[in-house]
Amino acid sequence: MSMNRKNLDSEDTKWELQEFVSGWYEIPAAMTDRRRINGPPGGSSPVIFASSLGIGGRSVKRPSRIRPPDELRKIFLKTGLTPLASGSAYLELSPSANTGETCDSLAPSSSALKLTCAVHGPRPLPRSAPFTPQIQLSTHIKFASFAARQRRGYIRDASERDLAVHLETALRGVIIGNRWPKSSVEVVITVLEGEEDRWWGDETGGGTTGGSAGGWGMMNVLAGCITVASAAIADAGIDCLDLVSGGVAAIVKTPQSQHEAPDRDTDMGEIGKNGRLQLVIDPAPSEHQEIYAACVVGYLSTRDEITELWLKGNIPGTTSFSTPMQMAEVGGLLDKAVEAAVAVRLVLGEAVREAAELKAGQNRNNKE
Amino acid sequence: MCHRRVVESNQNPDFPNQYLPQREQRQHRGDERANSSPAATMPPPLTHPLFSPPELSYTHTSLLLQPPIRPDARTPTQFRPIIAETNILPGTNGSARICFPDGNEAVVGVKAEVERSAGVIGSLLRKGGRGEGGGGDDNEEEGRKGVGENAWVELTIEIPGLRDDDALPVFLAAMLNEALLASGDLVDRLWINQRWHWKLYIDILLLSPPLSYPIPLLSLTTHLALLSARLPRLISEADEDPLFDNDWEASIHLYPRHNKSSEPTPSKPTATKPKPREQPPVTLLVTVVGENIFFDPSLEEIAVADLLLAVSISETIDDSEPPPEPKPTTTKPPRNIRLLSLRTIDPPARLTPPGVPDALNTAVTQAETPKNKAATTDADVDYSGVWVPPKGGSKRKLIGRIIQMVIEHGGVGEEVLEGLEGVDVG
To answer: What is the CA radius of gyration of chain B?
Structure first.
C-alpha cells in the first residue's frame, strides 16, 4: 500500500494507479502519512489565553466590521508570477482595517486570504490514456501546513478535496473544452493563508463554524480560488467563454447598536432582543459573532450565468418557513453574491488586461 | 419501463462488463489487460457516461419537448418507487436500507460512542461567565444551544469500485454532512455534560456500483436511519462520568418523537411548551434540460443535463401548535419545510463527445464542390438534431424556480416527506 501512496496527488500517474489500486477493496478509511515526520497525533491541545476568556479585566475584543455591508475588502491580483507554469496568478485580500482601538494581544485580530495558482497545460495526455473529446481538467487545492491556526497535514484532507470539486465545477463551464481534445490541464492552487472559520477568541468553546466539511471561511477561500484560477487560465491563454469570478455573501447578525440607519437593501429584519439580520458581501468570519447562511457563486457577468453555486445555512426565526419569505432570503443572498462577483470581476478584468498589455509591449520590443 | 432500459444497457455488446466492479473486470480479462486496452482504464460510467452522440441527442430532444417525455415515462416530479426498511442491523443504534428498482441499494448504520470533550476549561469558564444558575428550564435550553461541535458527527461513504479519495464519495459525504449540521440542533443533542459527548458515526454503504448519482438514495437512507436511531437513557447527573440505563426499551430517540403517551420524553417532562422538533434532512437531486426541471433523474437524463443541483431540505414539526381542525375540504396543512443547502454538481454532459453535423463530416462532404467546403464556420452549420455538449452556466431565475418547486406548499419536498412517513421507523 505504501507504494501506491507515494504519488497519490500526481495526476500523471493517476490512471495507472487507479488501475492498480482498484483491485484492493480494503483501503484504510483514514490514509495516514507515514513518509514524513509528523507531530504528535492529537496529543496536545492549544494554549488558551486568559485574556481571550475575559478574566482579570483584560479582554480581547472581537474585530468588528467597519466596511459598509456592500463593500469588498481590497483585492490584490497579479498574473504571471510563477515563471515555469504556463499560466499563474496570485491573489491577496487585505486584512480588515482595524477599528483603531489599541489591542492588548499580539495575535492578529483577523486573517487575510493569500492564494497562489499555477496552471500547467494544455498538454497532451499520456499515450496510455483513453481518448477524450474534451480537455481533461483537474484541480488541486492544498492548504499550506501553516495556512491556518490549526496545522494542516501534507496529504489533502476531505475539505480540500471538496473545495477542488467545487472549483472544477466552476471552471468546467467556462473553458471551451472541445478545442483541446486528447489533452489535459491542471490547476494547482496553494492556500498560503486561509480565512478563519471563526474568531480565534471563540475557539475555546462554541462560536459559529459552518460545517465540518468546510466552515464559513472555506466559502471565502473558494470564491478567491475561482477568481485566481480564472486569472491564471487567462494568463495561460486557454479559451474561455468569459472570465468567471467568485463572490460571497452572507446573512449575519449585527448588534442593534451598530445599526443606526436600517438600509432597505441589506436589512433582513429583527432577530431576538438586540440584533438584526443583515446581508453583507465578502464577510470576514472573524468579524461576525454569528453567521447564519452564506452563499458562493461562480458568475459569468457577460452572460449573466452561474456555473457554481454553493449555499448553506439556516436562518432562525419562526416566520421563515413560509415559501415567499424563504424565497426572498435565498434570492437576496444569491443576488448579493452575484453583486460581489461582479465587483470582483472588475479587478479580475483589470489584472488580465494589465498582463496582456505587458506581454504585447514585450513582443513589440522584441520585434524592434 | 425504467427497469427494462437499464437491463438493455447492461447488455450492451461493446462494454459487456461495464457495470461490474473493477476487480471482476480484471479477472475476466485476464492477460489481455496487460497492454493497456482503453476499457481497462475506463473511468466509471457515472462521470463519463457511455452514450453515443445520437443517443444523447435523442434523449435531449425528448426532454426538451413541452411537455417533456422522460425515458421511463415518468412525470417531471415523479420519483421512482423505492423499497425501504429500518432497524435491519442489530449492532447499530439505528439503521436503514433502501432499494431502487434499477438495482441501486444502500445500507446505512448509525453508531454512537461516548467520547471525552476537548477544551473543557473553555466551556467551564464560559458557563461561569454566562450568569447565575439558570433556574428555569428555558434558561437551560438556551444554555445548551451552540455547545455542540461539528466534529462530533462523522459521515463516511463507501462506494464499490471507487477509491475513498475519489471526487464522488468526497463531495457526496460533504454534501450530506453539511445538510446534517446546518442547524446545529443535532450536535447540540449529542452533548452529555461538560466533559463528555456522544460521537456519532454514520456509515453509508452503497451495495451496487453507482448507476446514477446516488444522492437521493443515500440521503433518504440516512434520513430513515437517523429517525430510527436510539441512544441509551442517561441516569447519571450533571457532570458525573456518564452512566446509562441498560434497558434498551427505555432508550430515547436521537430525533425526538411526538410524545403521545408511553413514549419517554427525551430530556424532561414537558410541563412547558414543547420545542419544535427538527427532522433529519433530505437531499434531492434536480436536473434541468432547457427550461424543463426534472426530479430524481436517471442515468440517461443526467447524461444530457444542463444543470445538476442538489437541494437539501428539512422539516420542523411544531407540536405546540394544535393540529388544525379538519376542514371539509381535504387539503393538507402546509409542512414547515426549510431549505438548508444548495450546491451545483458538475454535469457529466460537458464531458460527452459532440456529434458531427453532416456539413462538417468529411465522409459526407468529400465528393462535393469547394463551394460547400466554405461552410466550416460555426454559424453556417446546421446543428439541429446534433448533440452539442452544454457550455456556460445557468440562469438565476431557473434556480429560483427549482427552490420554489421544492419548498412550496404542495411541492416536491412535501411529497417526498409524506412518502417517507409511510416507512415504519420503529
So the answer is: 26
Helix and strand totals (H; E) in chain B = 13, 12
CB atoms within 10 A of CB B361: 11
- How much helix, strand and coil, in percent to the nearest 5, is found in chain B? 35, 20, 50
- Closest alpha carbon to A225 in A198, A197, A249, A190: A190
Cα–Cα distances in angstroms (integers) from residue B300 to residues A100, B9, B25, B211, in the given order: 59, 10, 23, 10
> Closest approach of chain A CAs to the CA of B341, in angstroms?
4
Q: Provide the percentage of residues in chain A whose pLDDT is more than 90.
A: 33
Which member of A29, A156, A310 has the closest CB to residue B343? A310
Q: What is the pLDDT of residue B274?
A: 63
Is-contact B96 B103, C-beta < 8 A?
Answer: no
In chain B, positions 104-123, which contact chain A (CB-CB < 8 Å)?
Answer: 118-119, 121-123
User: How far separated are the first and last CA of chain B, in Å rounded?
Assistant: 33
| Nearest CA distance, A84 vs chain B (angstrom) | 28
What is the number of structural domains in chain A? 1
Which of A128, A164, A321 faces B338 most closely, judged by CB atoms? Answer: A321
pLDDT at A295 (0 to 100): 92
- Beta-carbon separation of A165 and B167 below 8 A: yes
CA pair distance A64, A199, nearest whole angstrom: 11
| ipTM for the predicted complex | 0.79
Tell me the torsion sign for CA atoms B326, B328, B330, B335.
negative
Residue A311 and residue B176: Cα distance in Å, rounded?
A: 13
Whether residue A49 is contained in a domain is answered as no
Residues of B within 8 A of A166 (CB-CB) are 171, 343
Residues A329, B222: Cα–Cα separation, whole Å: 28
Residue B369 is classified by DSSP as: -
Surface-to-core class of residue B112, CB atoms within 10 Å of its CB (0-12 exposed, 13-18 middle, 19+ buried): buried
Asked if the model's pLDDT at residue B67 lies above 60, the reply is: yes
pLDDT digits 0-9 by tens, A197-211: 777 666 654 444 444
| Structural domain span for residue A280 | 63-97+108-125+136-367
Q: Report pLDDT digits (tens) over A105-144.
A: 666 666 789 999 999 989 999 888 888 888 889 999 999 9
Domains in chain B with CATH codes: 44-324+333-352+387-421 (3.30.230.70)
Dist. CA B178–CA B370, nearest whole Å: 59
Cell representation of residue A356? 496582456
Name residue, grid cell 483537474: A138
Reduced to 3 states (helix: H, G, I; strand: E, B; else coil), residue A162 is helix
Termini Cα distance of chain A: 58
A9: in domain: no
Q: What is the CATH number of the domain that holds A267?
A: 3.30.230.70
Q: How far is CA B256 from the centre of its chain?
A: 22
Number of neighbouring beta carbons within 10 Å of residue A33: 11
Q: Give, for B158, the enclosing helix (H) or strand (E).
A: strand B153-158
Q: How far is A232 from chain B (nearest CA, A)?
A: 19
Structure-derived torsion over alpha carbons of residues B368, B372, B377, B381, reported in degrees to the nearest 10: -90
Q: Are B71 and B2 in contact (CB under 8 A)?
A: yes
Evaluate if residue B348 carries a pLDDT over 80. Answer: yes
